[in-house]
Amino acid sequence: MTLLKVGNLSKTYRGEKKASLEGLDLDIQEHQVFGFLGPNGAGKTTTIKILTGLMSPSAGDIFLRGEKMNHRDKKLRSRLGYLGQEPRYYPWMTGEELLIMVAGLFGQPPEQGKKRAAELLELTGLTEARKKRVGAYSGGMVQRLGIAQALVNRPEILFLDEPVSALDPLGRKEVLDLIGRLKETTTVFMSTHILADVERVCDRVGILKEGSLIALETTESLKEKYSPRRKELVFDSGEGCREVSSWLRTRGVPVLEDCNGTAALSLGDDDYLRIGGDLLAFLASGNIGLQSLTDSTAGLEEIFINLVGADHG
Amino acid sequence: MANSSFLILLTKEFRELARSKKLLIGLAVFLFFSLASPLTARYMNEIIGLVGNQQGITFNLPEPVYTDSLAQLVKNLSQIGLFVMIFLVMGLVVQEKERGTAAFLMVKPVSRAAFILAKFVTLTLFSALLMLVSTAVCGLYTGILFGVYPWKELFGIALTLFLYMTVILSVTLLMSTVSRSQAAAGIFSLGVWLLLSLLSQWGRVGRFFTGALVGESSAIMFGMSVDWRPYAGAVGLTAAALVSAVAVFRRWEA
Fold first, then answer.
1. pLDDT tens, position by position, for chain B (254 residues)?
2. Which of residues 46-75 of A touch B (CB under 8 A)?
3. Residues A46, A48, A54, A59, CA torsion sign
């Protein structure tokens, strides 16, 4: 079921001629993690800020469960959760105090607020640190507290703006695991430029380029649609790999993944069909050992680079 | 829910004031002046006399009276006291915008007017508390040193200085809402304070500007009649600054 629908959303900042967001149409399905991808400056944060009422659009409509919403409507804000990029909270407050305050802002009575705060501290693994001042939290803890505060009102949709970009690998794993679990209870709209994270947790992906949406697919269909089929060749040695790579280039065959610190390269299926026989003969004549020859598809990163242009990659 | 969110924001502001030590700093500064003012007034002649003796000069100075103590208090609080207050509150809004806590609150069902009003009420109560404590202490100490407890005059002075402070701090709140950095907010606030003081010299119209309130404190001190115009002007300027701060913050985009 469609939870959030956005029609013709546009934003041109004051004093700028070019639109930062141009006619964006989106529909977000319930209980999914939606990955909003794009290079820096593509308009991801602008979109999230408009959808959460922090910024006014120049044009466009927002529908939540089919109901048209004013982006500044308190009713809309009471139904969503938001975690900004590199969030910072009041350093003098404890994590528990922050969550109780947020519960109060959503109209929850104090007892209910305390109970909800305890649940969320448990969910985000912060129970032990609940009496600690936020100023003493690590980056990962602040991020998890950020997710906790965004969930206080049991939002129908949770907006996360680059939720893991500032975290170390351990912190990233913790937060991504948590996001993966959240879709059981809510819908997640997550902007990011880390493609491995998208592959890991997102069900559906929208790719934004210079303020316009250029792809909106499930992660799987995006791969099927935009990923050329290819052959991956793994050699016995890096030297053999480089020899084959040079040979392919002399024949004008584009090498897609080129022995980068490994003994593997890949080339397009069509190219392989065209020169496969010659290639095998070259391997035999040069006594180059081939370990495996398999079918593969491009990763999301390559699709992303192809779609938004290598200059942004 | 609107009222309850205002009260929650108000509580948050007071806790912040206390935990960030601003309350303590404000109290320390104002208490210092409330003790130093009577002391300076009472012993200034002796100090000058001592210096004069060392140089071989004799000064004929009038005997100090309790109004000297009050005049010192007015001078100290309306200048250094207010300067410290501007320094303490100039980051109220701009700091929240800078560190992202304003955005964090504004995606909750909270009105932007409530956000600004909670800060204004906190400022006002903070100033009221400081004025109350400092005038009470100054009154007691003046009584001990001069034998006169000038409660009536001090009450009028406290009220006048409180209003004076409220105007300038409302302007500081507005500047903090408009500015992009704390330093800018502080500099703009000091600039408007100076401007309002200069405008108070501008003939009849000047009587409506804040600077004239300091003169009214002297009138109260010496039992003279009080001009209502600076008071009316102060209420008007405070309201204008507050309404402008709300209007500016409503248009703010994170």
1. 556 899 999 999 999 999 999 999 999 999 999 999 999 999 888 888 888 777 777 777 788 899 999 999 999 999 999 999 999 999 999 999 999 999 999 999 999 999 999 999 999 999 999 999 999 999 999 999 999 899 999 999 999 999 999 999 999 999 999 999 999 999 999 999 999 889 888 888 788 888 888 888 888 988 888 888 999 999 999 999 999 999 999 999 98
2. 49, 52-56, 74-75
3. positive
Beta-bridged to residue A2, according to DSSP, are A29
Confirm or reject contact between A166 and chain B (CB < 8 A): no
- Residue B10 C-alpha, separation from nearest chain A C-alpha, in angstroms: 11
Using CA atoms, how far apart are residues B190 and B167, in angstroms rounded to an integer?
A: 12
ipTM associated with this complex: 0.87
Would you say how long chain B is, in residues? Answer: 254
In order of their start, the domains of chain A are 2-219 (3.40.50.300), 228-296 (3.30.70.270)
Domain residue ranges in chain B = 2-251
Neighbour count for residue B57 (Cβ, 10 Å) = 10
B15 interface with A at CB cutoff 8 Å: yes
Cβ–Cβ contact B21 with A under 8 A: no
Is B225 at the interface with chain A, CB within 8 A?
no
